[in-house]
Amino acid sequence: MFIGHFAPALIAATHKDAPKLPVLFIGAQLVDWAFFGLLLTGAEKMRFREGTSVMNPMDLYHMPYTHSLAGSAVWALGFGLLVWLITKNRMGAVLAAMVVMSHWFLDWLVHVPDLTIAGQPPKLGLGLWNYPAIEMPLELALIFGSLWFYARRTGAKGAPLWTIAGLFAALQLFNWFGPVEQDVTTGTSLMAFVAFGLMTLAAWWLERSGLAGKPAGR
Asked: What is the crossing angle of helices 30-41 and 69-87, to 10°?
């Protein structure tokens, strides 16, 4: 799961008390921001291994702080608390935390067993990465269905809407069909950060297009 992680952010953003869309986009990939940061330090680990799954060669063999259910819950609670401290918006904080938490459950659908409850076996994952005919249309339906829903509810349109749709498509196609790295390097994390950052910038532009000409507030 890659672009599909942004679907809960788009849906949550239509709530009248939701945080800004870029904030929710950060929340949607927060545990991956953290994972690729911890990967740089060696606190969490992965390797590229052919045959890990049909669609993805990443062997995510040690990620207890981000991709365990308990670890994800800590990131979700922390993010929700930060949103509440800044905005004093209780519902917005709850929505932000739920978006962060959704990451683990969406990963559970596609990952081969490499997720945990609290960092120790058993390892969990439904393994849809081994079934491209299911995973690929599922991910596209999630993201483009939620984008359509967001546009209908907010009035977002024009260049920002087409830009974010194009970015979703381009990044997912690269993820599915782009060159496969042989070794984990600093560039592995930097590439992820650039992708997440581009999507967050696109979310900022998209939200502005939906708010243009409307009174302040949702």
From this structure: 120
